[in-house]
Amino acid sequence: MGVNIREIIPPNAIQTLSLDALRGKAVAIDAYNALYQFLAAIRQPDGTPLMDSRGRITSHLSGLFYRTINLIEHGIKVVYVFDGKPPEIKSIEIERRKKVKSEAAKKYEEAIKKGDLEAARRYAQMASRLTEDMVKEAKRLLDAMGVPWVQAPADGEAQAAYMARKGDVWAAASQDYDALLFGAPRLVRNLTITGRRKLPKKDVYVEIKPELIELDKLLKALGITREQLIVIGILVGTDYNPDGVRGIGPKTALRMVKAQPDVRKLLRSLPRNEFPTEPEKIFEYFLNPPVTDEYKLEWREPDEKMIYEILVVEHDFSPERVKNAIQRLKKAYREHFKTKQLGLDMWFKR
Question: Which residues bind Mg(2+) 1 (predicted)?
Answer without folding.
Answer: 30, 83, 157
